[in-house]
Amino acid sequence: MYKVLLVDPEHSTRNNIMKMLDWKHCGFTFQDYAETEIRALNLFSERQYSVIIINMTKMKDKGLLVCERIRKESSIPILLIGGNKDFQLVRKALSLQVNDYLPNPVKPDEFKTSLLTIKQTIEKKLFSSNKNQKPAKRILDSPKRTTNIIEKVKDYVEEAINENITLKEISDTLHYNCSYLGQKFKCQENMTFNEYLLQRRMERAKYLLHHTNMKIYEISYSVGYTDLDWFYKKFKLYTGVSASEYRKLQSKAQ
Question: Model-level pTM?
Fold first, then answer.
C-alpha cells in the first residue's frame, strides 16, 4: 500500500475525502492527516509517504506554501483538490510541479483517475530504480533472504520479472545444479519452474491491467515480454480473454 498524508484543516471534509474512494482497492492507505501547514511539514520531515494530498478549499496560499517547502527537498507526488479555478492559483501550482489539481466540485471518478496515474508514476520510478541493479545482488541484499533455496528462486523471479529469466541463470547465480534445482522446485511447488514463471508474469500483468493506466505494450515489457504478440498469445491462453478485454471487464466490475 502507498502511504498518504492528507492536509486538510476541516474534519468534515477529511471524512468526505476518505469516503470518496475505496482507497485500499486503489492501492493507497491513509497514514496521517495534518490540520495546519506547520503540522504537515513536520510530519513530512519525520515520516515516509508516497503521496501528499492537500485540500485547497481552506488552505489556499498555505497549501501552496506546503508545496513550495516540500519541492525544495523532494519530488514526492502532490495532488491538490478543492478550491476554485483561479488562473493565478493554477499557474502557481503548476510552477511547483504538482502532479494534478482538481478544483471544486471534485468528482470521484476524476479523483480516482488522478490517484491511479500517480500510482503508475510511483511504480515506474520504482521499476527504474531497480532496473540497473543485478537480480542476484538484490536477492543477497534483500531482508527476505532465506536459507530455503526454492524461496530464493521465487525471490529471484519477483525481482527480475521484467527480464529474460531462465532456471539455468538462477542455478548458476545461486551455485546449484540446474537439473537438481528444477526437480526440487517441482517437488516443492507442484509445478515446473517455467509454469511458475508464467503464472507470476500473468498475475502481475493482470494486476497492472486492473490497477494502472499503463499501455499494454508497457505492461508486456514490465513482465518480461519484448515480443508484444507473444505476450498477447500467452495472456489469452492463461486467462481465456485478451489483455484489452480483461481490462474492460475489470473496469465494468468496479
Answer: 0.53
